Amino acid sequence: MFNKLRKLDAYPKVNEDFYSRSLSGGVITIASSLFIALLLISEFRLYLHTVTDTQLVVDTSRAGKLPINFDVTFPSVPCALLSLDAIDISGEQHLDIKHDIIKKRIDSYGNVIQARQDKIGAPKIEKPLQKHGGRLEHNEEYCGSCFGAETADDHCCNSCEEVREAYRKRGWGMTDPDLIDQCQREGFVQQVNEEEGEGCNIHGSLVVNRVAGNFHFGAGKSISHSTINLLDLITVQTESYHISHKINKLSFGDAIPGAVNPLDGVQWKQTSPNGVYQYFIKVVPTVYTDIRGHTTQSNQFSVTEHFKNTDLNQYKSPPGVFFFYDLSPIMVTHTEVHASFLHFLTHICAIVGGVFTVAGIVDSFIYHGKKALTRKAELGKLR
Q1: Which of 58, 61, 172, 267 could bond to 246 as cystine, CB 3.0-4.6 Å?
Q2: pLDDT tens for each residue of 308-346
C-alpha cells in the first residue's frame, strides 16, 4: 500500500547531486520573492478593506416618524418674529413650534448676542387685568380676558400665547399685540423693538409623520389651521422682511457615512422686497448596515428650489422659507461587506503559484538560452 502511495506523489524528489544552481536563478528567485511579498501585502489590504453593496428595494414600511434636523441662519429676521410651523397631508399641524428649538440672536456681522430656548417670558406686573375688566385684587384668582375669543364663560387667557391660541381657533389675527394686556406686560412688542435690525440663527429638530408635508420659517406667527398653505395671517404685521438665509445643516435622520446632504452650506440672498423661497424635497428612505452588523435607519434626499415674488401676485403672502417634502416609495440599502477568508486564501495560492510558475519559465528560458549560446561559442572555436 505504501508503494502505491509513493506512485501518487506529484512532487518527485531529485537528488541534490543533480542540482545545477545559477546566478540568474538566484536573481530571479529574489525578484520573484519580493514581487510575491508586494502582492500579498496588497491582497491583505484589499481583504481588510470594506466595500459598500447598494440595492434598491420597495419601501414597505407603513408607519413610523420622520426626524428632521436643521440649522438655519436669517441675517435680517429677528428671533422675536421668527417662527417655525409644520403641517402634513393628514391634517396634523404644529404652529409656532418651540420644543427642542434654540434661537441665537446675531448682529449684522454674524456675532452671537444671545442664545435661548424659544419662549416668551418677561416680568409680569403685580396687578394684571382681569376678565371682568378690573385689576387683580388680593387673594383673587387670576383669569385674563381673551378679548372676545372666549369659547365659554369660564374660559381664561392668562398669557399672550393663550390669547393668540384663542384667536387662532377663531381664525382671527392679532394685528396689534400692544392692545393685549398679556402681551404688553410680557414685553412681546418691546422685545420685537429691541431686536430690530438683528438676525437670528435657529437650530433644533422636530419629528413629523412619514407622509408628505412641509415645514417653514416665517417672519411672524401663523394662525391658519385649515389648509396646508401656512401663509394666511401673522400676529405681527410688517411691511416687508428679507428672507435671505443660509442653511448650515438640514438632514432627515441620522448621518450616514459617505452621504452628503445637498443643502448643507447653501446660502441665498434676497434682492426683491418680498417673496417666498421654496425647497421641494424628495426624501429617500435609506438603511445603512456596517461591517459589524449595526443598522442605521435614515434618509437621503434630493431637492429643487424656487423663489416666488409675492409682489407680482394679487394675494400678497407673508415672507417665509418653505420646505415641502415627499417620501419616495423606493428604499436604498447600503451594506458594508468584504471578501471571505476562503476567497483571500484562494488569491494567496494563486499569487504564490502563479509567480513561481512564471519565474520558473523565465529562469528556464534564460538558462537554456545561455547554454545554447555557450555551445555555439564552443563549436565556433573548434572550427
Answers
A1: 267
A2: 876 655 555 667 899 999 999 999 999 988 888 898 899
Distance CA(84)–CA(320), nearest Å, equals 10
Q: 374 exposed, middle or buried (CB, 10 Å; 0-12, 13-18, 19+)?
A: exposed
Q: Please give the model's pTM, rounded to 2 decimal places.
A: 0.67
Place of cell 414600511: 61
What is 255-297 written as a DSSP string? --TT---TTTTEEE---SSS-EEEEEEEEEEEEEE-TT--EEE
Contact 200, 103 (CB under 8 A): yes
Reduce the DSSP state of residue 53 to 3 states and report it: strand
Question: Crossing angle for the helix pair 341-382 and 23-48, nearest 10 degrees?
Answer: 160
The residue count for the chain: 383
- How far apart (Å, rounded) are the C-alpha atoms in residues 130 and 128? 6
Residue 74, amino acid: F
Who contacts 316 (Cβ-Cβ below 8 Å, separation ≥6)? 274, 310
pLDDT digits (tens, 9 = 90+) for 148-167: 788 777 788 877 778 877 88
Q: Cell triple for residue 85?
A: 410651523
Residue 121 CA: distances (Å) to CA of 54, 159, 160: 50, 10, 10
Residue whose C-alpha cell reads 441675517 in the numeric block? 75
d(CA 276, CA 308): 5
Convert 60-99 to b/e letters by CB count within 10 Å (16 or more is b): eeeeeebbbbbbbbbbbbbbbbbbbbbbbeeeebbbbeee
